[in-house]
Amino acid sequence: MPIQLLEKEDTSVWGVWKIEESPEELVSLLPDPEKYRRQGSRFRSVNRLNEWLAVRVLLYRLAGVEKEICYHPTGKPYLADGSFHISISHTKGYVSVVIDPVEEVTVDIEYYSDRVKKISSRFIHPSRETLSVYKEDTLCSLLLHWCTKEAMFKYLDEQNVDFQEHLWVHPFTVEEKGTLTAREFCTDKQQLFRIEYFLEPTYILVFCREFKISP
């Protein structure tokens, strides 16, 4: 089954699609195949085309009807009819989409790779952030910091964000799934965020939303 995960939480609906189909197979899952063939003809990379199509197939499954995805000048996606907030992420062989009619939620997905260790000095603050060990390694902690900051960056939609100086993840202990908090210091609001995360066998998935204190 291409959909790896399909979940609902509060008003959010989200899913993960494992891309195993050809472009033509993905097109056949959409309500107007010819339209998507025309639009997809601009892609030179089959992998990029598959990601683009899989996002639209997944959105169609989540919303139950066809929705047009548009993009702000910054690259942030939105729906033409304004019916939902939407966030999109992709990694090697997977795409993820989350929609919510009420509040903004952003998603980031990342497959497991040691490459994050090589760039950790660019996004981990040496004195304000700490890594925890999970299964005798800090890889998952590093990836969760990276995914969290990517999701925060998507939420803020601001320019010139320094992942190390402006986005701080509060200390947490890595588990198979859980929540953590993080704060941004690149706007006057200095918003606090709640991050929900899942460690799946082949990828890490995080969702970011504003942390709201109940009255």
Annotate the secondary structure layout:
Blueprint lengths: L2 E7 L2 E7 L4 H5 L5 H8 L5 H18 L5 E3 L5 E3 L5 E7 L2 E7 L5 E6 L3 H4 L1 H4 L15 H18 L10 E3 L7 E8 L7 E8 L3 E8 L5
Antiparallel strand pairs: 1-2, 2-6, 3-4, 5-6, 7-11, 8-9, 9-10, 10-11
Describe this structure in words.
With 215 residues, this protein is of the alpha+beta class. 27% of the residues lie in helices and 31% in strands. It has 6 helices and 11 strands. The protein has helices spanning 23-27, 33-40, 46-63, 115-118, 120-123, 139-156, and strands at residues 3-9, 12-18, 69-71, 77-79, 85-91, 94-100, 106-111, 167-169, 177-184, 192-199, 203-210. The strands form 3 sheets. A 5-stranded antiparallel beta sheet has the order 7-11-10-9-8, with helices on one face. It has a 4-stranded antiparallel beta sheet with strand order 1-2-6-5, with helices on one face. It starts with a strand and ends in a 5-residue tail after the last strand. The model has no long low-confidence stretch (mean pLDDT 94).
Summarize this entry quickly.
The protein has 215 residues and is an alpha+beta fold. Helix content is 27%, strand content 31%.
